[in-house]
Amino acid sequence: LTIAIASVFAAPLAASNSASAGYVTVDLSSYANTRIQNYQPSSAGYPEGLVTLGGVPFDIQKVGGNNAWNAEYVTGAYPHVLDIPLNIANAQQVDTLINTFYGQPGPTSYVELEFFGTGGAYYRKDLIGDVDVRDHFYGSWTNTINGTSTVNVYSSGGGPGQESRLDKQQIVLPPSFLGETLTEFRLISTGGVLISDASIQG
After folding, report:
1. SS3 for 25?
2. Dist. CA 94–CA 128, nearest whole Å
3. Checking DSSP bridges between strand 109-117 and strand 69-70, what pairing results, if any?
4. CA 57 from chain center: how many Å?
């Protein structure tokens, strides 16, 4: 369970893997509270371990264990929040693997991403249902994405009522993060029970 962050001065994860060059994967395994392969019968084939999805390296840990953070499995009142401390200089873009449970269409956003840096650098990205994010399962909830900043990187196939999918978001950070250090990533799932619960796999 990682996110991938492109940084100007980041060392490649593996010199032999050009897709990894310039990316830093962030280990989120200590926050994992569920296993994506258990979401639906069609979820069994979801990728895990060290994989490249949409040209970006992800380490979806643990193989055979929990490998996602899902707001539905967090107790207490909404919003349900995931806070990840970071220490990445000169971050330019962040790539995530986020889908929803019971996804709701826009224009209201129920999933918000926040990025904090030194020197006051800050950026917020609202993920809009049927544009930036959609349901993990092809059913009666949200089923479309924009195909540009959010792209599909895995599908089990099978169509309505049978298909599980995994989508990647590319978030380009503003220039204020150059020369600064990205210190925190925050995911906020605001919808409540059965309303666009966010599931982040990477």
Report:
1. strand
2. 17
3. unpaired
4. 13
Contact (CB, 8 A) for 91 and 5: yes
Return d(Cα 115, Cα 189) in angstroms, integer: 15
* DSSP class per residue in 122-187: EEEEEEEBTTTB-BSBSSSS-----SSSEEEEEE----TTT-BEEEEEEEEPPGGGTTSEEEEEEE
Q: What whole-number distance in Å separates Cα of residue 188 and Cα of residue 53?
A: 24
Q: Region 140-157: what's the mean pLDDT?
A: 95
pLDDT tens, position by position, 3-61: 555 433 222 222 223 344 588 888 888 899 999 999 999 989 999 888 899 999 988 87
HSE toward the beta carbon, residue 30, CA cutoff 13 A: 5
The tokens 């990316």 sit on which residue? 23
Measure the CA angle with vertex 182, ends 172 and 190; round to 5°: 70
